[in-house]
Design a protein that fits this description.
heterodimer; A: 334 residues; alpha+beta; Uridine Diphospho-n-acetylenolpyruvylglucosamine Reductase, domain 3; five-stranded antiparallel sheet; four-stranded antiparallel sheet; B: 748 residues; Aldehyde Oxidoreductase, domain 4; Aldehyde Oxidoreductase, domain 3; seven-stranded mixed sheet; 25 strands
Chain lengths: 334, 748
């Protein structure tokens, strides 16, 4: 860990100013569960940190509005996971938070910061001697041809196959969430689908935010499909583990169980939160049953590229989507 | 003072019924009042952090510490460029003290990735961590091998490399011939490891000099080894080293010997004239201490058509370091768990470029039982016999290896009682025949386990005080296993006083010498000494050999009749050792060297036994194994402390769940070392992974073994958990796991 300067502004305006003044390389500190972790590993070495935890503009959630749900970026994962309306009307969103990390971490981490959680790739986090294009551009990728059991099947490339580890963003992307972002050039709105980028040739670039921008709010359009939703997560142990495969699924069913609205995203298997339009198309108008659910899962993983040890997660992922559709379908009928 | 072999008093001592005494120290632990080694924070404390090698093997060709040294607050950077003036402590299993023979920081050799190459000491932990990240090393790298089958490993036969009688291959009868003639045969290869102990308490402590005396506060299972080893390393009298370790936050074998960070820490403290603390980061602990090596087992079982065993052949390859050979005793239990008349064992070591692997709870017995008990389940299937019935029909009378009687053997009782508690009679024999409405497959498995009962020399001193309290000073260590509770319970029960009137001091070399506490021998060995000391104390107090004692009155009376005792206390000591142990064993104990007796004693062999029954559920979509319940019944002799004994077994079942389903230290042969070096990626069970655990004891005292009737428990409790789960997985799915852990991809 390297020494760094620390400021804790009182307002969003002050925070934006402090960030600009501190200059490129400065990191925004929210819950700290990723940033401090990586700083202790010498993976993140920011010269300055701007603490936004106490900013009033980032607080609060509203899950009762007629048009959209809003989540202050500074709201705690634990608080949002426990929100009774969210649990009733959008179980996928609540479950994606409740199944992430541990209670202790959820008590610290924020729903805004969680979107930008960095990969758990052991070669990225391990530092030297492991080459890693994300950590040290141009050094290579140790995961390719290495211990890649947990690495991405979708969205990877020759430079990087690091998995995007989050759960919350996977559920949000299924619901077409948008982000409000503030910076020295003003405020803008960004679809969540436009936030994360695939590694391509530049795995060190993970998102489209400028270094001096702050996510202030997450907004989710209201949809009836929320009630028929689930976040299904398969992992090596029952809690406190990243997904081997996960699926956020939401459906509304019409006459005879035919799928009307359908939203599918997968997690733990891709380099970014991964919406699956081909799976949604597969289901549109179809009767939701074991076979159509399985077809949707297969469609979601049609473009999957396996490495050395992770091929089993294609089949696991297909089954995870199918199982999520079964759970969501049961909820949709209630 | 009495100096007796435990056999000195063979009469069954009138131990009163054991009450459910709550764990001594429980409140201190859950409230944070308990002080562990690294909690010690004397004034003027400095902080140390190691720098570790990133090369897999080779030489350090350059070490640049300039930038690190310039960090404000940095006091000292120790490396091989310095002359630390310390000698290696020697390997613990070769008349030394350390977990391996290699002492880092003495030369430019790198034997494995993760080996320490420098130690940075600073005023603050922040400065030490910062500076450690700025030390730059250059290496001349050499090829290395870290896996059993890699090119460049070297395989040696144990009985040739370690020519000691107790390490020779076990050979009874003509196993190969009997196997070939057997109508039913099983021949399979099983593999486990590597794994790490990952106790919650990290490795670390505080070294400080009080004048010419080195005082060490560190969580350890072997305060005597730290004392003796540091004295050897620093070239000072052992009486000038004090080791204080009242609590150990989990040892599991990781802390059973001197760790190589301590001598450099003592050097730093001496040079700075300040106490220095070092707590290793979790990632470092994966390379800084021992681990459970990979072991590969080929097991061949021959039986008649009814499943009666005629022959067993157990061949093991165990991963080793280049320097040291961890004496392997896998076949010690596999040759004895059943009445097999023809047995052949063969144990080999495969030298690789890692730190020296070592002891991790049931170090040989857990992998050996996974192999044998899985093979036995395969045999039960082949013979069409119920797995419990098959085991019962193969029970042993006398020890198949030596022909001696067992001191006690209640394996059959464990199996019968466990089957009853579990409801085993309802089990349909065919795999895949228990299925819930949602398609979840359910399986029931059983496995047995054994562990040698060893006994070590112990000095116990009892001080009966004028206020009626009794202080027990005993050579042992409290690692959470409950030794303090068992000792307090024994003293209180014998004298008929409340447990709250007894104080127990363990883990303090200032009061008594300490043998290593491991191998589950802690409770039986210390109780033996305390038992003898109690008889001596009663004699000195002038009270009968049994019955309640008014301690305050007896101390006052003793003071009147023997004025040379100052009237404040009456002191009694006893030094005990295992039956047949030579006097040199006591000398070794006093020197901090290992000196266990058993499991072969002059008149008998002694083992603890256990049977585990496991229920697993495997969901159809994502076939990850969940353990919904376990029943464990142990034969550990008399139960010395029911509350902590049950906790020991429950903890071991949790260990077994981890070992069976998730724990695995990942190795990348391109880089060496271990890759998943943190508690997020080294997957131990969480509470939600653990179903219902029911624990029962046979409870039959073993007075043939010793006058307290206590055998051992802490290790045997783990033996057989993993195969019980693996056998349940087979019963659920029809797929036979032959390597651990059993993960979702194995059942897809």
């Amino acid at each position: 860990m390297r020494p760094y300067t620390y400021t804790a502004p009182a307002t969003l305006e002050e925070a934006v100013r402090a960030l600009s003044e501190a200059g490129p390389g400065t990191k925004v500190l929210a819950g700290g569960t990723t940033l401090f972790d990586l700083m202790k590993l010498d993976i993140e070495t920011p010269p300055a940190v701007v603490d936004i935890r106490a900013l009033p503009e980032l607080a609060g959630i509203d899950t009762a509005g007629p048009r959209e749900l809003t989540f202050g970026a500074g709201a705690l994962m634990a608080d949002v996971a426990a929100d009774p309306l969210l649990r009733r009307d959008y179980p996928a969103l609540a479950e994606s938070l409740a199944k992430a990390a541990s209670q202790q971490l959820r008590n610290m981490a924020t729903v805004g910061g969680n979107l930008l959680q960095r990969t758990r790739c052991t070669y990225f986090r391990g530092g030297p001697p492991f080459p890693c294009n994300k950590r040290l551009p141009g050094s290579g990728c140790a995961a390719i041809g290495g211990l890649d059991r947990g690495h991405a099947l979708l969205g990877g490339g020759d430079a990087c196959v690091a998995t995007y580890p989050g759960d919350w963003a996977v559920a949000l992307i299924a619901f077409d969430a948008v982000l409000d972002v503030t910076g020295p050039r003003g405020t803008r709105t960004l679809p969540l689908a436009g936030l994360h980028v695939e590694p391509g040739e530049r795995p060190d670039r993970e998102h489209t935010l400028a270094w001096d921008e702050i996510v202030t709010r997450i907004r989710v359009p209201v949809t009836a499909a929320g009630r028929g939703s689930t976040y299904h997560k398969v992992r090596d142990r029952e809690s406190y583990a990243f997904a081997l495969a996960s699926a956020a699924v939401a459906v509304t069913l019409g006459e005879g169980g035919a799928v009307e609205e359908c939203r599918v995203a997968v997690g733990g298997v891709a380099t970014r939160p991964w919406r699956c339009p081909s799976a949604e198309e597969e289901l549109a108008g179809a009767v939701l049953d074991r076979r159509s659910a399985r077809r949707a899962g297969a469609a979601a993983f049609a473009g999957a590229r396996a490495g050395t040890h992770n091929a089993f997660r294609i089949e696991l992922g297909i089954r995870t989507v199918a199982e999520a559709l079964r759970i969501a379908g049961e909820r949709a009928l209630r | 003072m009495t100096d007796t072999e435990e056999s000195g008093d063979r009469t069954a001592h009138p131990w009163p019924p054991v009450e459910r005494t709550p764990r001594v120290g429980a409140r201190e632990k859950v409230t944070g009042a308990a002080r562990y080694g690294a909690d010690h924070a004397p004034p003027g404390l400095a902080y140390a952090i190691p720098v570790v090698a990133t090369a897999g093997k080779g030489r350090i060709t350059g070490l640049d510490t300039a930038e690190a040294a310039a960090v404000p607050g940095v006091l000292l950077i120790l490396s091989h460029l310095d002359d630390l003036g310390i000698a290696p402590a020697g390997y613990v299993m070769a008349d030394g003290y350390a977990f391996q023979s290699l002492q880092p920081l003495l030369d430019d050799r790198i034997a494995y990735r993760g080996q320490p190459i420098a130690l940075v000491v600073a005023d603050t932990l922040v400065a030490a961590v910062h500076a450690a990240g700025l030390v730059r090393a250059a290496y001349d790298e050499e090829p290395f091998a870290v896996e059993l089958d890699a090119a460049g490993t070297e395989t040696v036969l144990q009985e040739e490399a370690l020519p000691l009688p107790f390490l020779a291959d076990v050979v009874v009868g003509d196993a190969d011939g009997a196997y070939e003639r057997s109508p039913l045969r099983v021949d399979a290869v099983y593999e486990t490891g590597p794994q790490h102990q990952v106790p919650m308490e990290l490795i670390g402590g505080v070294a400080e000099w009080h004048g010419d005396t080195l005082v060490v506060h560190e969580g350890t299972q072997s305060a005597g080894a730290l004392r003796g080893g540091l004295a050897r390393q620093l070239g000072i009298d052992p009486d000038r080293v004090q080791v204080i370790t009242p609590y150990v936050g989990g040892g599991f074998g990781q802390k059973n010997s001197l760790q190589p960070h301590l001598a450099p820490l003592a050097v730093a403290a001496r040079r700075l004239g300040r106490p220095v603390k070092l707590v290793l980061p979790r990632a470092h602990t994966f390379h800084a201490a021992s681990f459970r090596p990979v072991s590969r087992h080929r097991v061949r079982l021959g039986a008649d058509r009814s499943g009666r065993l005629l022959a067993a052949i157990h061949e093991v390859d165990q991963q080793a370091s280049r320097r040291d050979l961890l004496p392997a005793t896998y076949t010690e239990i596999t040759s004895r768990l059943y009445g097999i008349s023809s047995f052949r064992g063969r144990q080999r070591h495969v030298r690789t470029d890692v730190q020296t692997p070592g002891y991790m709870r049931a170090p040989f017995e857990h992998p050996a039982a996974f192999a044998l008990e899985s093979a036995l389940d395969e045999l039960a299937c082949a013979a069409g016999r119920d797995p419990v019935e098959l085991r019962l029909s193969n029970d042993a009378g006398a020890d198949p290896v030596t022909g001696k009687p067992f001191s006690s053997r209640h394996l059959a009782a464990c199996l019968r009682r466990g089957a009853e508690l579990f409801g085993w009679a309802e089990r349909p024999p065919d795999p895949g025949s228990m299925r819930e409405t949602d398609g979840t497959l359910v399986g029931w498995g059983v496995a047995a386990g054994a562990y040698p009962v060893m006994t070590v020399p112990v000095l116990a001193r009892l001080r009966a005080r004028a206020d009626g309290r009794v202080l027990a000073e005993v050579g042992g260590h409290e690692m959470g296993q409950g030794i303090t509770t068992a000792l307090a319970r024994a003293v209180a029960g014998d004298l008929g006083i409340g447990v709250d009137r007894v104080d127990v001091v363990v883990g303090d070399t200032r009061v008594v010498p300490h043998h290593l506490t491991a191998g589950a021998w802690g409770t039986n060995s210390t109780l033996l000494a305390v038992h003898a000391a109690l008889l001596e104390l009663r004699a000195r107090l002038g009270v009968p050999r049994e019955g309640p004692v008014d301690v305050a009155a007896a101390v006052a009376a003793a003071g009147r009749s023997a004025p040379e005792q100052d009237g404040a206390e009456v002191v009694a000591e006893a030094l005990t050792k295992g039956p047949g142990q030579p006097p040199e064993a006591v000398d070794r104990m006093r020197a901090g060297l290992v000196a266990p007796a058993g499991p072969e004693y002059p008149g008998h062999v002694a083992f603890s036994f256990i049977a585990h029954f496991a229920e697993v559920r495997v969901a159809p979509a994502a076939p990850r194994v969940r353990v919904s319940r376990v029943v464990s019944v142990a034969d550990c002799g008399r139960v010395a402390s029911p509350v902590t004994a049950e906790a020991q077994v429950r903890g071991a079942v949790v260990w077994g769940i981890g070992a069976a389903l998730s724990e695995h230290s990942e190795v990348d042969p391109r880089f060496g070392g271990f890759v998943n070096a943190d508690l997020a990626d080294y997957v131990i069970p969480v509470n939600a992974d653990v179903g219902r655990i029911e624990v029962a004891f046979v409870g039959e005292p073993d007075f043939t073994l010793n006058p307290t009737g206590v055998k051992t428990l802490g290790e045997v409790a783990l033996v057989g958990v993993a195969p019980a789960i693996a056998n349940a997985v087979f019963h659920a799915t029809g797929r036979r796991p032959r390597s651990l852990p059993i993960r979702v991809e194995d059942l897809l």
